Amino acid sequence: MAKTIFEEMGGTYVRQGDYFIPCLSLPADKENHPIGVWGQRHKRYLQEHKKATYTTLLTSGKLNSYLADIDEQAEEWFSRMVRQMAEHEDVTETLKAENQMLWVQKINNIRNRAMEIVYTNLIYA
Q1: Taking 90 as the threshold, does the pLDDT of residue 74 lie above it?
Q2: Domain range for 39
Q3: How far apart are CA 17 and CA 1, in angstroms?
């Protein structure tokens, strides 16, 4: 009997009752990158709204590295925007020492705006 393409590539089968099922596994991810909160949120967005993209990334074995890259980009962008907005609005350590409640209000406002920008332009895009 002639070998199938799967068998020629080194694949094997396992017998399950009357059927032979191919032994399939995803390619091993060479680098184990941690996926943070931004990457997890983008993953959930892909699962719910971009199912074809999610499946393609998952089956090609590139999902974890893709999510780690998105997470890194989002974190850098968020940090840079918070820093720039704080400088622009004069939210400094001096204000923190003089009026802590006002500093907390302003910094929380800045962080929330930066999060919305990252969500809109990177995570949910």
Answers
A1: yes
A2: 33-123
A3: 21
